[in-house]
């Protein structure tokens, strides 16, 4: 289960995709009427053409990179699994309903579907909306099979291993700093997903204070991923930091902001930069256009000397192997990776 993509780079297709995406109540959590006015009357009319141009910069002969990488992962997983494997997108095609139907056609007696969200960290606007959408489609169609969902794997050893090995070859180069750029979310989302509404964003060090809130705290989970990776790769203090990208609107989002940091770093003596985007497992608009293209231009124009974006996990062997391992382990009775 991945995010999704427009059907093409045409403005109508991009507009249709943005409407579906931004009208999701877990992405922009305003009342429906206000969201409709904001998204349909202001954001989408303003952004559709601009976003279409951005998609054109990353589009390949296979189409959307995110869809293409998802298909490749699906094919590689299928080569490791006897059971049928399908992909589904939260927005756009193929839909969750199509995925369920394809699985039933391939295995009419199917008793259980294991859904693997392509989001390592829990957030309302990514993991939660994908999972709830999968459940809503499942309930609406009254399928007889059981639906099982893999929980966020931000600290899972197999994910950390795959991510670390993706980064490792780049550390051989002469670099000044490694920036972990995570997708941003509004600070208000953290407070909403805090089960007790009494921990997240209540203190400067809330993410380091043990709490049940960490199970759904995107910020804590991002920090946890970063710390495990730098520990595994033995990256010294001062050679890495984090930031948050892709903010929308004027609401306060998680800080520091990636675009600001890319402009500031050269003035701080960071001239040779590596950037990795752990919140994304498939390269997409937010990594390829925002970070690899615009981010690089901004950093170099601000006085940077070299800049490399480390590709997402995409179809790397360790990543595909991790997913396969989780599914096989569950089939053998290990429920550790299963969402309660």
Describe the structure in your own words.
The strands form 3 sheets. A 4-stranded parallel β-sheet has the order 6-5-7-8, with helices on both faces. Helix 1 crosses helix 2 and helix 9 runs parallel beside helix 10 (285-301). The protein folds into 3 domains: 2-58, no CATH class; 65-153 and 317-331, Rossmann fold (3-Layer(aba) Sandwich), CATH 3.40.50.1400; 157-309, Rossmann fold. It has helices at 11-22, 32-58, 65-80, 96-106, 124-140, 157-167, 187-193, 218-233, 258-264, 285-301, 317-331; strands at residues 2-4, 89-91, 112-115, 146-149, 177-183, 240-245, 272-276, 306-309. The longest helix has 27 residues, at 32-58. With 340 residues, it is α/β, with parallel strands linked by helices. It contains 11 helices and 8 strands. It is globular, with a radius of gyration of 20 Å.
Write a brief caption for the model.
The chain is of the alpha/beta class and 340 residues long.
Per CATH, the architecture of the largest domain is 3-Layer(aba) Sandwich
Note the run of SSEs as H and E: EHHHEHEHEHEHHEHEHEH
**What is the end-to-end distance?**
18 Å
**Structural class based on helices, strands and sheet pairing:** alpha/beta
Helix content: 40-55%
Q: What is the averaged pLDDT score?
A: 96
Q: Low-confidence runs (pLDDT<50, min 5 residues)?
A: none
Number of beta strands: 8
Radius of gyration: 20 Å
Question: What is the overall number of helices?
Answer: 11
Task: Report strand %.
Answer: 5-15%
Task: Categorize the overall geometry.
Answer: globular
- CATH topology heading of the largest domain: Rossmann fold
């Amino acid at each position: 289960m991945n995010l999704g993509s427009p059907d093409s780079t045409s403005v109508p297709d991009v507009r249709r995709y943005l409407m579906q995406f931004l009208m999701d109540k877990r992405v922009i959590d305003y009342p429906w009427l206000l969201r409709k006015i904001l998204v349909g009357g202001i954001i989408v009319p303003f952004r559709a053409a601009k976003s279409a141009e951005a998609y054109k910069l990353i589009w390949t002969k296979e189409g959307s990179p995110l869809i293409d990488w998802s298909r490749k992962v699906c094919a590689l997983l299928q080569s490791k699994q006897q059971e049928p494997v399908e992909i589904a997108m939260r927005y756009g095609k193929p839909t969750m309903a199509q995925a369920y139907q394809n699985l039933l056609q391939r295995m009419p007696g199917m008793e259980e579907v294991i859904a693997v969200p392509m989001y390592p960290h829990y957030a309302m606007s990514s993991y939660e909306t994908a999972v709830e959408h999968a459940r809503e489609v499942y309930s609406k169609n009254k399928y007889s099979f059981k639906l099982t969902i893999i929980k966020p794997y931000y600290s899972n050893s197999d994910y950390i291993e795959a991510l670390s090995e993706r980064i490792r070859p780049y550390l051989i180069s002469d670099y000044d700093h490694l920036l972990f750029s995570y997708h941003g979310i509004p600070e208000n989302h953290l407070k909403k997903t805090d089960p007790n509404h009494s921990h997240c964003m209540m203190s400067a060090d809330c993410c380091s204070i043990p709490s049940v809130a960490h199970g759904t705290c995107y910020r804590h989970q991002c920090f946890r991923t970063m710390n495990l990776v730098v520990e595994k790769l033995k990256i010294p203090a001062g050679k890495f930091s984090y930031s948050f990208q892709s903010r929308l609107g004027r609401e306060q989002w998680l800080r520091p902001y990636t675009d600001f940091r890319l402009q500031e770093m050269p003035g701080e003596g960071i001239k040779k930069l590596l950037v990795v985007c752990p919140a994304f497992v498939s390269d997409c608009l937010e990594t390829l256009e925002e970070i690899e293209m615009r981010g690089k231009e901004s950093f170099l124009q601000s006085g940077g000397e070299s800049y490399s974006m480390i590709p997402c996990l995409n179809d790397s062997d360790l990543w595909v192997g991790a997913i396969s391992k989780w599914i096989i382990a569950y089939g053998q009775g290990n429920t550790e990776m299963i969402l309660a």
